[in-house]
Amino acid sequence: MLQPDLVRLLTEGHVLVKSCDEDCLTGNTQEPRQSEGEEGGEGNPFNYTPQLIHLNKDHQLFEDGDIHRHMYLQDLYISEAEDKPTLSVSEFACHISGCSAIFSTLEEYEHHYNSLHRHVCCSCRRSLPSARLLDIHIQEWHDSLFTILSQRQDMYQCLVEGCGQKFSTSKHRKDHLIKIHKYPPDFRFDKTKKDKGNRQTKKQPQKDTTMDVVDDVCESEGVCEVMCDGLSHQPEQEESMETHGSEEEAARMAKSASTEEHADLNAAAPSTESSSSDPLEPRYSYRVPTNVCFGRGSVRGFRGRRGRRK
Amino acid sequence: MWRLNKVHHKAGRPGDSVEELKLKRREHEKALRQARRDRQLVSKRLLLNDDEDQSEVTMDTNSGEQDVVAVLQKLHHSGPERDTHLKALSKALRDPSAQLTFIKQENSMHLLVGLLTGSDATCRLQAVRCLHELSHSPHTSVASACLPASPYLLTYLSGQSTKFTELCLYTLGNLCPESIVKEKLLAQGIVPALASCLENQRHNLAVVEAVGFTLSQLLQANDAAEKIIPMVLASSLPSHLLSVLTPDPKFGLGPAIECAWCIHYLTCSMKDHKVLLAQGALLQCSSLLVSLGGAVAEGNKEEGMELLICPLLRCVGNLLSSCPLTDLSAQMGDVRIVVALCALLQAFLLTQPALARESAWVLNNLTAHSRALCSALLTLNLVPGLIQLLPFSQGINTMILRVLANIAHNKKDFCVHLAHRGLLSALCATLKMADQEMVTLSMDVIFMLVVSSPQVAEEFVKQGGLSLLEATQYNSEGEIRQRATHLLEHHLLS
Question: Are B334 and A17 in contact (CB under 8 A)?
Fold first, then answer.
């Protein structure tokens, strides 16, 4: 017996033959939802309603069944034992705009997301591999207090967890990393702020928001060049190794404050990029909303913090 | 009569390997799919003589053309051996090119019709067999050449000879898809003729099957909705079709299959089903599904059962779409329909995913309509089984998610129950699927669950819902971003 529970339910007629009278009393199934006050709040975009779907003879959904019927009519019937169609399973996809990676399992998706999208700095879009490195990045790059303090005391932390040592400049730290911890001289997650140079060339927001996805690098190993903009392929730039998130943020909830903030970041003139080999990919015209960022550790990096999040 | 266990593969020849057969079958399937896309999906049936089997059909028929001419010559000279010649003629007419040759011969059809209507009963039978072979031709010219015989074929439907009536019916059924022939047949009263044939021969299941086939050919026409269907609905055909839906265990599924497909073509072409609903079509089809579902759940899958289940599902699905809510309890009554549908879903998921998809569609229409049935799904503990189906694509998971959304939409209580059955964690996965419809539906259901009760909202947050939604705020679709933000701002973080 394949499904004993269901068999039991189907044969225990006396238990189950209930009428559907309950429906007649309540009438429209939609009413209770709507009458219960401020369900969604103002501007509620959710509007799911149950749909009664009528399908006509030629509908796509009926294709396989029709074919099976006609195969039978033409004496070409195949029993189940002889023909096993393949059942397909949904794929997963990274929906972050700019990323079009597809995965066959949830685990692969999670790995992708955690590696490339989770620890992203809101201010400059760079993706760091861990919360700690993200914290350090924000501190060193976007915290003006840090800049001030580091002139007086050793503030640059060693990147190796547990080491605890601090240094007066990033160069000293780098030497420490190479000498003591045997790090490569071109370690990807230890760029100096000065090196970032002209990478922040966010062009004027594109007028059209066509979904031209930049997907070249999501498949590459490690974390280099996630959702890069076209400039990142410059060989002469050290930055080319750095990860850099593109403007895939949420919709244009641009407040005037954020516009100014971005103007600051976009200080570097795009015109200095003379040797750009690739044409710039069209990017999205979203501004970062001041109150959201998916970089966990970047609360400190916010201008205009959300404040509600623990 | 078609017995599924006797069917051999027409496409194959003796000596074909299994692989070759599969290849040929796949080619046929491709051709059928293309025909369906062109809205030209038509099939003809060939009734074999009792004394021959399928393998004879595939014998070499190259000499057919010459045989036809020769036999015709002999037939023109009347004599006592006419029936023998006719038998030879019918064998010769198996060959498609021989069929063309036949109609080109002078007075050939006239001769055949004469024998069809003559006083010799054996000759009549052989003559109708020849016509049957001709009806199988793919050429329009052959079909229209058979027109002179049509009024007689219709007249003979009220006769009592089973074999003869069957042959007349299948011949008519093969001819009807040609529009010239169809026009004539309609004018000559094919619908009333089929109606009285079915009424009088209700207990003769072979004839019932043949009537069902012929009617299905008429109803499948692309323009059936304008002329044919109203005629059929006005006749006694619907009630008789419904009365033979329950398959006879001894005879087999054939008649029920044909009649079910007729009812399907009736329901899918119209939006208004008052006539059929008044005759209890929904009740009949759904209780039959319940018993078939039970058989399937027990593992008693009779071969060919899906050929009957498919049209029944479609009838229930489409009838529901126009059944007024107030009538639903009279028409459905039995809550076991949802159990049957879940049984069908599980049973056919791997072997006939299309059937699983259609079952899910019917469940959607049921749950969109009826709170009692939504409640039944919960109390009968059918929801976890549905949640397990959410990984499967090609229309299955989107329909199942609609079913779950319908349940959630009903009542806050239902949302809490759904959350307890593990829907939240399933949604955290479906939100990441590639299919945009799945993502949108997932957001909708998450919304309904989260606003239903603070406990559910809390549970969602515990499962990492906040960071999930934050990531969704960067979704490439504007509507999704909007929803994620709304949910976060108004319901989870305030």
Answer: yes
